[in-house]
Amino acid sequence: DDDIFSSAFCEDSEKLINVHLFALAAKYYSLSSLGVCTPLEDVLEALKGDNEGATGIKPDEFMNNKKSHEVQMMSELVDSIANYCGIKQVIDIGSGKGYLSSFLSMQYNLKVYGIDSSSSNTNGAHERNRKLKKHWRAYQSRGKENLERQSLEKANEKPVESEINCKTINEELLNNANSLQNQGHMIIQDLVPTCGFAEMATLETSTEAEADLVTGTLSHETKLSEDVLAILNVLPADAVEDFSSLHNCGELCEEEKVQRKMTSLRTKARKSSESNLYFPLTSCITAETELSDIITDLEDCMMVGLHTCGDLAANTLRIFTAKPEIKAVCSVGCCYHLLSEQFENQEECHDQVWGFPMCQYLKDKGWCCGRNARMSACLALDRVAVGQMLPTESLFYRAILQVIIEEIYGVTKSDRHVGKTFSKSSSFIDYVRRSLKKLELDDSKLPDSCIMDYYEKYKHRMNELEAFNMLKVVLAPCIEVLILLDRLCYLKEQENIAWSGLVKLFDPVKSPRCYAVIALKNQSC
């Protein structure tokens, strides 16, 4: 196969002479063709065990289509891994605005620490999480009302039986409530974790119990006691009210007293559990980071990262392999162009930890991609394939701008960035002047006529630029393969890893960086 594909290039000039063969070779060496990925369905099936998964609000209620897809797919996988490993704490590295973190905590009742280096992201995550809780409670109430209405409709079919059962429940509940009051503190000390976290009662359990109470379908003392205990289990000691106060409201019938008391307990349980499940933190994560310095109650946990940028994805894997309390990792990287490369500049920096390569195999070969190749790896072939074409005009503007600043200003390298200037510009002249200001270059020495001369000089090469970028897009999956397999090989080289693999987690049209690196440690580690 290598011999066949090599004929895509001229043997003497090494120029590309067969574009079709080049495209076939690129496809052959992509992850989808190499057969190294583990299907997501197989992973979920292997992790499932007795876990049936959670049902509740879909994230598209709160996020755009792309983010909703990413959060829904990744949170289901993370929850499955957490259940399989028997852990409840999750550390979200590079958590950004907290989309994944907040959904994991609210939908799956996981204790999530979201760590991001940007304080503005962390503050934004705090505010967004506060608003999200309000909407979340509204959706929960809507679901609860629907269940109650359905239960009442069923109960109306047997009104006599319902009335008898309801009376029995009221008497039993009062008797059980009084007997439980004296045991309350002991129960809570035994069942609530001492670390200060209170696990949320699931939506299904709470709504079913409330529907049963309203319709009078509970008829057995054991079942009734379990429902009361389920509420007590999630309350801190100071949240348990004196049940004897029920007898001091003579103007209320016994049924109303019971219902008000149960509603009060559920409200406090909900507030107690919701307030401590997601913690946004600000910290810069490196390979040497000690998580226990950031998270004071660190316990057995797993690390996750949804589109961790540049070296952060590599450092996430290094921290995972080095820390015994981290039992699993699920990392989706992005921004390959920001990776640091050990052999790119041929400089000896023995103390630096590099983003690429990670595995010893590529280190021994001194492998280097280079910035241009890493930039190409960020392109989205699947989007182009369905008609979402490259922004050729903005790329063309950017290419001419580079010629201008080199020839007119003598600048070949700058730490400043043009950014998204194209979308704000009304013409090529406007684009150039806005860009020069961003680069802090004096645009007064450059008349409009000179700017347009450059445009006219190169505009006939726009098709050439488009063809070149299309070739880069075709090659993108091959470069991404190299980076992802480097990370997988690094995990395979570790002795404490029970299983590791690459999983296509997202729809690549919705989310081009769609591959997750997953690993689980040996149980003894």
Automatic annotation (TrEMBL):
Organism domain of life: Eukaryota
Domain Methyltransferase: 66-342
SUPFAM superfamilies in the record: S-adenosyl-L-methionine-dependent methyltransferases (SSF53335)
Pfam family, one: Methyltransf_32
Protein name in the entry: MET25 protein
